[in-house]
Amino acid sequence: MRGTSMDPRSRTLKGFGVSPGIAIGKAFLVDARHIPIPFYTLSTDEQVARECARFEEAVTEVERDLETIKQSIHPDLKEQVHILEAHQLILRDRLLYDQTLDLIRRERLNALWALKRSLNKITEIFQSMEDEYVRNRVTDVSSVGERIMNRLAGRKANAFDEIRERVIIVAQDISPADAAQIQLEKTLGFITDMGGRTSHTSIMAGALGIPAIVGAEQATRTIRTGDLLILDGSSGTVVVNPTEEQIGDYYELQDALETYLKEISRKAHLPACTLDGHKINVEANIELLEEVVAAKDHGAEAVGLYRTEFSYMNRRLPPTEEDLYNEYRELAELMAPLPVTMRTLDLGAEKMGRWHPGIEQQNPALGLRAIRLCLHHVDLFKVQLRAILRASAATRNIRLMFPLISGVGELQRSKAILEEVKSELRREGRDFDDKMSVGVMIEVPSAVAVADMLAEEADFFSIGTNDLIQYTLAIDRVNEHVAHLFDPLHPAVLRLIRQVVSTAHKAGIPVTVCGEMAGEPLYVPMLLGLELDSLSMNPQAIPRVKNLLRRAQLSDCRRFVAEALTMRTAAEIREALQDMVLRVFPEEFKFFDPEALQPKYRSSEPYV
């Protein structure tokens, strides 16, 4: 048939689907030309002063631009205004603002070149981070830097102003500020070369409710304005210049997907009880107060992980006890009576704010970070603990969690400092929850080895699978040569999780998984069979995970895990898991990424 003949320009691209839904329409390619960055040195002090003033003026103009965008932001994005506020703070961050001015003055560089040098340095620092969530924050810094560059280069136009009809936007990247300016009535969806699942651009796309794909890498090089596109924001698939048959198939899939998503969203507030009556809690990972609404709307039964780092980043001065107390108290009150698990500061020394001199570390993942940083800076640690304890007074629903505990000594010292803070508060006559649960994150193999000893000192465990996998397999996920070996289904990883759960349950304490593994539907049967007590994830993942849990049987999953734990390779385990999910949940996975069922490493690697 003529309708099914292949367009010679037709091709398929892959990225990360970050906002579900299907869009079919013409592409609009945002001009991705790089700003020319001249290099020259300044010969006189007067030229240096002028260049500093030019840079400072550009920063001030961008501040005004962001404030204008905030004031006119789309109603659907009101809860995401904090992202723009974060960008305003980044403008004056010491790594960006102070370092650029220092390069202009000390090396007598022109402003554009100095800014580019600063951005390159920041990118190196962020890309060395082990936590994907923190690594994705580099896109925010890049977005801010690009806006300053545009000002310095005299570019002021909003590329979206040129859109005249409903289109799918294709860009190298779309900053949160750009997303806030998108005309929804003319936007079917968007595709970017850059970005990850947890980037702020992805969060904005979800808030807008439009299909979106990030990290498509070659999109701007492959797609031209006017090309017909199919954008599948669930699977992360882009079909460029599809056949009529493909278009028809996707229109049918679009109707079915919309019906399915509405159905599982309506049931998201129901408990996650398996068909044979087993209840597992499904909780949310969040970092900002504004995300509480999304957590509740998607059916979260608790906050399983509150990342407290945001309050410490991009600041001129450290947060005060009152700053933290007000933030933590508001969060506890918004979630009450549901529990809130607050993780103490989990930053590396190289990423402290302007208020603290950064420390260069050859290998930040193995350096001064998380609980080690807090035990090194006890005064800083005490301020946060005081704020958490005081915030617990009214609602009594806060749980405290220490990250990156590697042994009993660290936990005992952390708890001793906590007791010192409690004693101080009692002397001051301040109320707090004296029975607050205290838990630890299990993220390093040494913690697994002494889990029985840690269980005697802790009220609960939370497994951070991202770090646990990396430390167990000795894999740097940002190293392209070995990143393909990162696999949650490696037999060693699964055995470590089983060991932690078994040890904790013998001691009578619960175990949560709060890494990315918890929010991946493919792993639901595995985590259920490993008998985790709760799963904590990005709020948007909750409806799908709850739906699968309610349709699973604990007994079947236990049998599957028992068999999987006898297998020798991740590839063998993945194949068995794929067979199971396609048999038990066929309709679920027809809507989503079929490649999610495939190994994320080369299966030909003999040592996996």
Structure characterization notes:
This protein is an alpha/beta fold and 608 residues long. It has 24 helices and 16 strands. 46% of the residues lie in helices and 12% in strands. The strands form two sheets. The chain has an eight-stranded mixed beta sheet with strand order 1-8-7-3-4-5-6-2. An eight-stranded parallel β-barrel has the order 9-10-11-12-13-14-15-16, surrounded by six helices. The model is unreliable at 596-608 (pLDDT under 50).
Write the layout of secondary structure elements.
Blueprint: E1 11-14, E2 16-19, E3 22-29, H1 45-71, H2 81-91, H3 94-106, H4 111-127, H5 132-135, H6 138-153, E4 167-171, H7 176-180, E5 187-192, H8 200-208, E6 212-214, H9 219-222, E7 228-232, E8 237-240, H10 244-266, E9 281-286, H11 291-297, E10 303-307, H12 321-335, E11 340-343, H13 370-376, H14 378-395, E12 398-402, H15 408-427, E13 438-442, H16 445-449, H17 451-455, E14 460-463, H18 465-473, H19 491-507, E15 511-513, H20 524-529, E16 534-537, H21 542-550, H22 554-564, H23 570-584, H24 586-590
Parallel strand pairs: 3-4, 4-5, 5-6, 9-10, 9-16, 10-11, 11-12, 12-13, 13-14, 14-15, 15-16
Antiparallel strand pairs: 1-8, 2-6, 3-7, 7-8
Q: What percent of residues are in strands?
A: 5-15%
Please give the count of helices.
24
Let me know the average pLDDT.
84
Report the C-alpha radius of gyration, rounded. Answer: 25 Å
**Main beta-sheet strand count, sense and barrel state:** 8 strands, mixed
Low-confidence stretches: 596-608
Shape: globular
Q: Give the strand line-up of the largest sheet.
A: 1-8-7-3-4-5-6-2
| Helix content, binned percent | 40-55%
* Annotation, overall tally of beta strands: 16
The SS-based structural class is alpha/beta
From the N-terminal CA to the C-terminal CA, the straight-line distance is 46 Å
